[in-house]
Amino acid sequence: MAVDELDTRILRLLLERPRTSVREYARILQIARGTLQARLDRMEREGVITGTGPALSPAALGHPVLAFVHIEVTQGHLDEVGDALAAVPEIVEAFSITGGGDLMTRVVARDNAHLEDVVQKLINLPGVVRTRTEVALRERVPHRLLPLVESIGRTVGR
C-alpha cells in the first residue's frame, strides 16, 4: 500500500502519542475527524496498522534475559515445529529464515538457568535437530518504526 504525506503524519502521531483520542489527533492534524477515521480504517484494512495494544516489557514482567535461538528442523517438519513453538510462552517471536537454520526465535527468560530449561524444551520437540543460542547483552536500537515511516513520507513527497 502506498502511503501519502497525510498518512505519514497520522502514523507519526500514532507512534509518538499512542494514547491520544481520534478527536485529538484530528485537532492536532487540522483535519476532519471523519477524514482521519477513514484513513485509519483504510490503513487497518490494508495491514499498515496491525494493532493498538500497549507495548509490554518482558524485563519488567520478570524476564530480563533475551536470547535468539536458531532451530534446525528435520526436512518436512517445519510446520509441526512452528506449531509446537506457539505452546512455549517464553517464545515471544518466531520466524522461518534462510541461512544457518530453519527457524529463529526470540526467547525471554527469568535468568540463564531458566533460559537453559527453555532451550532444552525446544531441543526435545519432535522434528528439532539442533539449536544455537545467542544471548543479547544490551539493546542498542529499540524496536522502532518512526524512522521508516518518516523515510517513506519523504520519498512519497518527492
TrEMBL record:
Domain HTH asnC-type span(s) in chain numbering: 3-64
Single GO biological process annotation from the record: response to amino acid
Gene Ontology MF terms in the entry: sequence-specific DNA binding
Keywords in alphabetical order: DNA-binding, Transcription, Transcription regulation
Domain of life: Bacteria
GO cellular component: cytosol
Any Pfam family matching the protein: HTH_24
Claim: Chloroplast is one of the keywords in the record: no
Keyword Transcription: yes
PANTHER family with a match to the protein in the record: LEUCINE-RESPONSIVE REGULATORY PROTEIN (PTHR30154), TRANSCRIPTIONAL REGULATOR AZLB (PTHR30154:SF34)
Name this polypeptide is given: Lrp/AsnC family transcriptional regulator
